[in-house]
Each structure stands twice: as structure tokens, then as C-alpha cells.
């Protein structure tokens, strides 16, 4: 009979995803200042519900993550980005 879990043999469980090196998208493009007016680019770093992706998910470095979160928050204030998910209003 086959065992479902692989942790019983003492080995760590197999990774079900391919290990891919994460990289900072801003370092790659050599962007030093993240502009909040460039909201189309910032949209890639927020989830469907409007939350900012953590650095461990997006792979952004600490230097750029700090700038990114500030830029997203500024863009929200300028109504370029959403605070929460878009819900359809029922009239
Ligand atoms: Zn970076």
C-alpha cells in the first residue's frame, strides 16, 4: 500500500514547485526612484483584493519594497490605485 505522506521516512517532503530564483524587478531595470504616477506598473505589485504583495512573494529587495509601498500608498491617495477589491454595487 502506498503512503500518501513522504515525511514518514525522515526525509523532507518533496517540493511541488520548481525552485526559481527571485529577483527584484526594479533592480533589473535599474530604477532608482519608483514613481507613484506610474500606476500601471505598480498594479503588478498589488493583489486582486488591493493588498501590497510582501517582498518574499514578489522578490522585491528591501530598498525597493520600501519605496514601492510608499508609492502605492501615494497612488491610492491620488485615486490611481484601489484600496480594496472592486465590488459591484447592487442598486
Ligand atoms: Zn531592488
How do the helices and strands line up, and which of them pair or pack?
Layout: H1 25-28, H2 39-42, H3 55-58, H4 62-77
How does this model look, in words?
The protein is built from four helices and no strands. The termini are far apart. With 91 residues, the chain is mostly helical. 31% of the residues lie in helices and 0% in strands. The protein has a domain at 22-77: Ribosomal protein S18 (30s Ribosomal Protein S18). The protein has helices spanning 25-28, 39-42, 55-58, 62-77. The longest helix is centred in the last third of the chain and has 16 residues, at 62-77. Residues 24, 26-27, 60-61, 63-64 line the site of zinc ion.
In a few lines, what is going on in this structure?
With 91 residues, this protein is mainly alpha-helical. The chain is built from four helices and no strands.
Q: At the first level of CATH, what is the class of the domain at 22-77?
A: Few Secondary Structures
User: Helix proportion of residues, in percent?
Assistant: 25-40%
Number-wise, the strands total 0
User: What would CATH call the homologous superfamily of the domain at 22-77?
Assistant: Ribosomal protein S18
What is bound: which ligands?
Answer: zinc ion
**Main sheet record:** none
> pLDDT below 50 for ≥5 consecutive residues: which ranges?
none
Instruction: Give the overall average pLDDT.
Output: 85
Class by helix and strand content?
mainly alpha
Percent of residues in β-strands:
under 5%
Separation of the first and last Cα atoms: 57 Å
- Helix/strand order, N-terminal first: HHHH
Tally of helical segments: 4
- Which fold name corresponds to the CATH topology of the domain at 22-77? 30s Ribosomal Protein S18
Radius of gyration: 19 Å
CATH architecture of the domain at 22-77: Irregular
Amino acid at each position: 500500500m502506498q503512503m500518501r505522506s513522504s515525511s514518514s521516512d525522515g526525509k523532507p517532503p518533496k517540493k511541488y514547485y520548481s525552485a526559481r530564483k527571485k529577483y527584484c524587478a526594479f533592480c533589473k531595470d535599474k530604477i532608482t526612484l519608483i514613481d507613484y504616477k506610474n500606476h500601471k506598473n505598480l498594479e503588478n505589485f498589488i493583489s486582486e483584493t488591493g493588498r501590497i504583495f510582501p517582498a518574499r512573494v514578489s522578490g522585491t529587495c528591501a530598498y525597493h519594497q520600501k519605496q514601492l509601498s510608499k508609492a502605492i500608498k501615494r497612488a491610492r491617495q491620488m485615486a490611481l490605485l484601489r484600496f480594496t477589491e472592486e465590488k459591484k454595487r447592487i442598486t
